[in-house]
């Protein structure tokens, strides 16, 4: 089968599109024929050796797929060959086939196209977990989403609205803000034209921000730390700007807010029942029209480098999807 292979940590253009052995369905595993694979920012970090997880070489990146079950391993009874499913694979998704733990797949309704289903797992599931389990966001609270036109940022805008929050989208261009507005954002802030700290401090009747879904890091994170409301929750999602900020802990002490890490991959391992329930709720919300996957572009598998460069360059509005 064909796959994208990382032979060593290196720039994106050293990824190889090549023939490798097809996976087999071991005990508790299934093999999926991949119909579409989601592209995520951590994938680009991982193949360059910049992510916290460093797999042994060679490896195939890609953590989320939509596909059809083509083989079932010993002990697997919850699915059968021919079933359409969403799979969280961890690795291996950028390929024509992938082996996946049976516990990490969910039935895929016919109402959800492959290209959208493949991107429903990581971005939307991260936002859902962050706002539900980590922030416990409540109706009427203010939610600021930085990088609000990216895959997980846009998901947070949608899910925040579904959970009853007032959503403030923070982006670098008007074009991106328009996308966030079309997905439910109530207030738009262009941080290249407006002073972010000043704008955030004015929210919530001048009391600051209840919840921040912070994807950017760098100067954006620094501004958010100064604008939190009492009992606020500053959610750490990622560092798309490239600078991992340092946090002056006295701010949390004086202002009485929490800084909360969000690592969805660990959540799925530590709380599998909550993960499964979250995914069922997300799929229900999708079918009810409360959330949707905005696909920026569908790219052939052999052009993975181009898709990753677009994601890493923060030029994506929504999600990039690979098609084997």
How many distinct domains?
A: 2
Q: Mean pLDDT across all residues, rounded? A: 95
- The total count of strands amounts to 15
What would you report as the Rg, rounded to the nearest angstrom? 19 Å
CATH superfamily of the largest domain: Medium-chain alcohol dehydrogenases, catalytic domain
- The gross shape turns out to be globular
CATH architecture descriptor of the largest domain: Alpha-Beta Complex
CATH-assigned fold name of the largest domain: Quinone Oxidoreductase, Chain A, domain 1
Number of helices: 12
End-to-end separation in angstroms reads 10 Å
Spans of at least 5 consecutive residues with low confidence: none
Percent of residues in helices comes to 25-40%
Largest sheet data: 7 strands, mixed
Determine and state the CATH class of the largest domain: Alpha Beta
Q: Helix and strand succession?
A: EEEHEEEEHHEHEHEHHEHEHEHHEHE
- Secondary-structure-based class equals alpha/beta
Strand content: 25-35%
What descriptive keywords fit this protein?
324 residues, alpha/beta, Quinone Oxidoreductase, Chain A, domain 1, Rossmann fold, 2 domains, 7-stranded mixed sheet, 6-stranded parallel sheet, globular
